[in-house]
Amino acid sequence: MSDVAVWFDLDGTLLAFDDYGAVVEHACVEMGIDPTDAFLEAYYDRFFDAFRNYHPDPFRAGVERAVMATGSYVDAVAFVDTIREAEFDAAKVPEAVHDALAELEAADGVALGVLTNGLEEWQRGKLEANELLGYFDATLTSYEVGRHKPAPEVFARAEKLLPADEHVMVGDDDEADVAGARERGWRAIHVDGPESVGDAVARIR
């Protein structure tokens, strides 16, 4: 058992996106689809509904709804692959994040985890693509639990993965990360983005 388990949110905490909305628009252009307001609205409405309800592929559900709503044609599988590639390319990790994680990784009695809402394969893929996966002793996504943060079941599952005397959540979402963690009895540190992760780590140590 570790003295402390430090859990990090992923998107917006370890990974920065200059303009996440541009990811889907870029995929549209790459696939020869006009990213009209009607197409994007239909995509996002269905995507978020599917995501909230743990649809196995909310990205494909969003694309299929947008195609139906606008009369466009595109191969849904290829479109999702293009979105994935665009999202992975858009994610940025400041060097300060690597420095902070390396500092914690080297500390005695500290275990590191990622606790993120999202699909397991998708989120782990982003960690690996950005050379972050090796820092962590455990990763847990909301899809694996069948509940999204701030649901207590997510934090309870994390406690089983990394038993520790104390758990700390570092994240950018006041409700999902901070409120959810504190409700479970964890310490919680809010960050404004990846550039703030170093300050958060200093507060932990």
TrEMBL record:
Annotated Pfam families: Hydrolase
Superkingdom: Archaea
Cofactor(s) required, per the database record: Mg(2+)
PROSITE patterns recorded: COF_1
Molecular function per GO: N-acylneuraminate-9-phosphatase activity
Gene Ontology terms: biological process: N-acetylneuraminate biosynthetic process
SUPFAM superfamilies: HAD-like
UniProt KW keywords: Hydrolase, Magnesium
Keyword Hydrolase: yes
Keyword Magnesium: yes
Stated family: Belongs to the HAD-like hydrolase superfamily.
NCBIfam families hit by this protein: HAD-SF-IA-v1
Protein name as annotated: HAD family hydrolase
Organism name: Halorarum halophilum
